[in-house]
Amino acid sequence: MFRRNLTRLTDADLVLRAQRGDPAAFEELYRRYSGRVYALLFGMVGNTDDAAELAQEVFLRAFRRIGSLRADQAVYGWLRATATNLGIDFLRHGKLIAYEPLEGTNPNAPRDIVSPQDDPERAVIRQETQEAVVDAVANLKPAHRMVVALHHFEGMSVEEVATALDVPVGTVKSRLARARDALRTALAPIVEGKSGMH
Amino acid sequence: MGCTDTRPYLADFIEDNLESAKADDIRDHVRTCPECGAELKALADVGMLLMEWRPPEPPKQIWERIAAELPKPVDIARPLGQPFRVAMAGVAACMVFVVAWAVGIRPILDTSYVGTPAAQATERTVEYIGTPANTDGANILDVPKKEAVPVDSVTNPTEDHQKEVPGARLRVVPPLKTQVEDKTSKGEPQNRPDGQPASGPEKSE
Description:
The structure holds two protein chains of two kinds. Chain A is mainly α. In chain A, 70% of the residues lie in helices and 0% in strands. In chain A, helix 3 packs antiparallel against helix 4, helix 5 (75-93) runs antiparallel to helix 7 and helix 7 packs across helix 9. The radius of gyration of chain A is 19 Å and the shape is globular. By secondary structure, chain B is mainly alpha-helical. Chain B has a three-stranded antiparallel sheet, with no helix packed on it. In chain B, a hairpin with a 4-residue loop joins strand 2 (164-165) and strand 3. The radius of gyration of chain B is 50 Å and the shape is rod-shaped. Classes of the chains: A mainly alpha, B mainly alpha. At the A-B interface, helix 3, helix 4, helix 6, helix 7 and helix 9 of A face helix 2, helix 4 and helix 5 of B.
């Protein structure tokens, strides 16, 4: 089947095809969700190389275990759970990684989402803000960075984060508060600049 | 409650991580303290700034590494190439030629052909219907072949087609056209196209 036809298939159809041994269907699933998985892992671990290595492991595990996935099961929920567990393990134990640095990548360079409608000056400010935020998050303590990634970037509720990390809800809230304090300090020029504009 | 006591709890206040009594104290102070109010707003804006967070694009090498570890792909997603299209065109051309040969070209090229399929259908054919009745050693194939008789010479094919050919268990099979005419004429003799009355029933030898 042509690639353009694969893009029209539902996740459930792709899972069924992948379970029958169709790598093209699995590649389409990768194409759909690799960005989100990678973003989650980058938010958790704070650097591109570890995030890339973990994302690779997430999808390899997904392929090996695709037979156990029900077709009606949410594919991304499954991938996110795998990614979260791998990210937590990595941050707790600092292992898994035995990688070669990826060539041609600019570590921690944020994705350029400058709107074409932005005027040049505004575009520069926006780009600088994005880079500052990415750096500030990357410099958080791992435990704080993890809750920020899961809660703010992934949109999980505080209760879901607590379940994923196997910690009390109060602990998650406390970590979020400490992360907020740290980000407030790291991003002081930007925050105060924004406050000054209001 | 003063500013020094309030500031450490502002982030927890935003995250809804305080006892209700403590949260009420913070709320009351912030309403009356512009500095703490500004700090509370700055902390809240951090949440807005996090919406600006954009991770880098995943490197292409990730999929390359994954693909290297997957089983050899059955490349059904790959578009068909030029060689395949040429081969399909050849097959289609062969099929067209075979069909043309069967329906049109073959009768023209075949020198033994004596008529169109429709004309042949109006002639009688001899059909083998069993083993030879004679046991004198005569081969069934030695039986003289009955020549085709034009249909318009048949006057009563209902009798004619039942007769057996001596020497072999053969019978004359009436053509389809004759059977149709038989139903309409109820066995009445018919005139030949040339106006002459048709002869009687054709007898097999």
